[in-house]
Amino acid sequence: MKKKVLAALLASAMVAGSLVGCGDSSDTKGGDASADNSAAANDSSASDTADSSASGDSASGDSASGDSASAEGGEAVEYGSGNISIWVAENMVEFTQKKAAEFFEANPDMAGYTVSVEPVGEGDAAGNMITDVEGGADMFGFAQDQITRLVSAGALCPVVNDNATFVTSQNDAGASAAATVGDMIYAYPMTSDNGYFLYYDSSVVTDPSSLEKIVADCEAAGKNFYMEINSGWYQPAFFFATGCTLTYDTNNEGNFTACNIDYVSDAGLVALKEMIELKSSPAFQNGSSISSGTNIAAIIDGTWDSDAAKEIFGDGYACAKLPSFEGSDGKTYQMSGFGGFKLLGIKPQEDAGKLAVCHALAQYLTSSEVQLERFNEAGWGPSNVTAQQDPAVQADEALTALAEQLALTIPQGNYPGDYWTLATSLGDDIITGTLSTSSSDEDLTAALQAFQDTCISYAQ
């Protein structure tokens, strides 16, 4: 990374750090940090910002000269010294320590900081931060569905100016959207690998593109087809397929302001009937963990179960995007659903110099180079558009299927906790037969109306 580019990015971070608690979004919207920063950004390429392979330096290329950088208005801010604490998944602790050491070796002007990396997974980090922001880590990985709660708790520093440009220019659109609340970016994407697709045994399933044919092949072979229809994560695959909407609006503080839902519609009725039709098959089993299933020929699952799928299906192991289905109206619908992402957040900092270093380190830890290394070491699917084109990533069957499916989905936004319980209840009504193939359209519409009204009430 060229010296002036890194300096501009650090200056942007320092501008954010000059805000009260780093979180006054009304003061951080839009605009460049300064005319000098804008010129520096325009003089650099996206690849200069993402990584520095062209300049031959692995961590960040040439570091900004001196031991300080200029914030808006030319005021010098010292980088300072101290400790930066980072929470990551347990299998990423050693990797993150190694990458942080490389970063500081390449940027000796910021080497007054030590890094302590602790094993706190994405599923626990948000809850811990919300409980005690002050005692939480300076930087932490988390799942994108927690971003609203973190913003509401004041646990995330906005990513502004050139740092925000880095996020949007280097990552796919879904990952960038997942890092955004209202009109403000609050995190750096690390992965685009949390979603679901079809694993199947190619010796049984002859056409993975059709749900009807998959189920028919499973029935003929006496095998099982698994999908977790009583889950708010998997269930939208049907409703979004027919064109239904279920999203929540949030403001910059992370509060729910509106629910956008149209399940009470002809499209919603088609989706609900398809779920009921699937459940009526003797091949259907409710579930999404291949390791917990029995006699499986096909399952809708995620990349986290790829090793188990390979072991179970053996030579028949295959992956594909979700299939299409023929609705009760005779039309064909491509199954859709949610996409998910891992993000790296920065806690608000009182020290502008420390904040600048945190932003620079976050950019390196989410750069194309490091994302690709993380994929090679742990199989995490990159969100960086350059890393996604690497031959090794392209050759991964599960990630390839997921990438095809993510193009058909929406990023999982922010949903109230009660939504997940409500979706389970709707699916359970199908599994238990409360809603069945003998239910009238009036009964099914009433069920959709109750679901929709309750969803709306969560934003009131």
Walk me through the topology.
Blueprint: H1 3-17, H2 35-42, H3 46-50, E1 68-70, E2 76-78, E3 82-88, H4 93-106, E4 113-119, H5 122-131, E5 139-143, H6 147-152, H7 161-170, H8 173-178, E6 180-181, E7 184-185, E8 188-195, E9 197-201, H9 211-221, E10 224-226, H10 236-241, E11 246-250, E12 256-261, H11 266-279, E13 284-285, E14 296-301, H12 306-313, E15 317-320, E16 324-326, E17 332-334, E18 338-346, H13 352-365, H14 368-378, H15 385-388, H16 391-394, H17 397-406, E19 410-411, H18 417-431, H19 441-457
Parallel strand pairs: 3-4, 3-5, 10-13, 10-14, 18-19
Antiparallel strand pairs: 1-2, 5-18, 6-7, 8-18, 9-14, 9-15, 11-12, 16-17
Helix pairs in contact: 1-2, 1-13, 11-19, 18-19
Which fold does the CATH topology of the largest domain refer to?
D-Maltodextrin-Binding Protein, domain 2
Mean pLDDT: 86
> What would you give as the CATH superfamily of the largest domain?
Periplasmic binding protein-like II
Give the strand tally.
Answer: 19
CATH architecture of the largest domain: 3-Layer(aba) Sandwich
Tell me the span between the first and last alpha carbons. 47 Å
What is the SS-derived class?
A: alpha/beta
Uncertain residue segments: 1-9, 11-21, 23-58, 60-74
Integer count of domains: 2
CATH C-level class of the largest domain is Alpha Beta
Question: Counting H and I runs of at least 4 residues, what is the number of helices?
Answer: 19
Oligomer: single chain
Q: Roughly what fraction of the amino acids lie in strands?
A: 15-25%
Q: Tell me roughly what share of residues is in helical segments.
A: 40-55%
Main sheet properties? 6 strands, mixed
Cα Rg: 24 Å
